[in-house]
Design a protein that fits this description.
With 61 residues, the protein is mostly helical. It is 67% helix and 0% strand. It is globular, with a radius of gyration of 11 Å.
Length: 61
């Protein structure tokens, strides 16, 4: 699982990329595909992580 600092860094990267709100979820998924160890997470853990990142992005806007 990612630390809160890593989640915040991903959120900042997405926010700075000026990605349209409808595309944020897709970009989070693309980023997570490249994070080592994510393939070991079950669906519930992955959804929780995705939600945490999405909430962090929304808190920056």
């Amino acid at each position: 699982m990612l630390t809160q600092k890593q989640i915040n860094q991903i959120a900042e990267m997405i926010n700075e990329s000026d990605i349209h709100n409808d595309d944020i979820g897709e970009h989070i998924g693309l980023i997570l595909e490249n994070v080592a160890g994510v393939e070991l997470l079950n669906d519930e853990q992955l959804n929780t992580l995705h939600s945490k990142i999405e909430q962090a992005v929304k808190s920056l806007k």
